[in-house]
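Example 3.2
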Amino acid sequence: MILLAATESVTSNVALTQLLDPLHLLTETWLKNAVLPAILVIVFIETGLLFPILPGDSLLFTGGLLSATDNPPVSIWLLLPAVMVIAFAGDQCAYWIGRAIGPALFHKEDTRFFKKHYVTETHAFFEKYGPKTIILARFVPIVRTFMPVLAGVSKMDYRKFVTFDIVGAILWGGGVTVLGYFLGNIEFIRKNIEPIFLLIVFISILPGIIAVAKKVLNRESNTDEAAQHDAALTASTNEPTH
């Protein structure tokens, strides 16, 4: 019985791994006869319909790889513009989903896990850092699914969102596909495409992390100094007078 359960677990894990392996999906399943529609549908679902557990980066990379083969299932000249348009359309869908649920959040009473000020703070964050966030979020799995929703909830200026979302769609949708076209045959890059992107994003936001850390440390230092000052003042007040 235990052996049977273990076997079923291994089988399920293998099936899940294959499901998330774009090379397997696009070459070993029925999707090999519909590579372009498969890529576009998966990209739209991941970016526009709040379904984050899909192989976005590696899927685009694999699409570029396949388009560079001798008898490509899809032309790179068709794949590139189609992917960029769908990536943009997905984020637009997610943004308006956020705009639709935003008013309900503003009228929702504060709970243990939700406070109205979370939304207003998110709005302030997007107004200040939104452009860079919208672009960089494209390259981070899961984050790219929910970032446009948060932008909609916080009512980020739509013109600003559209402008930088176009840039993000071009850099992510087009850029990752082109990388796959030219570098797909390099095994190390093919197997580590997502960690490479995460490292690039981390390096990009490192200055911001350092700035936030400094602010937190300065705030804690100021708090400690204020506490010490109050303690000293209290002690001096309580000293007996002669």
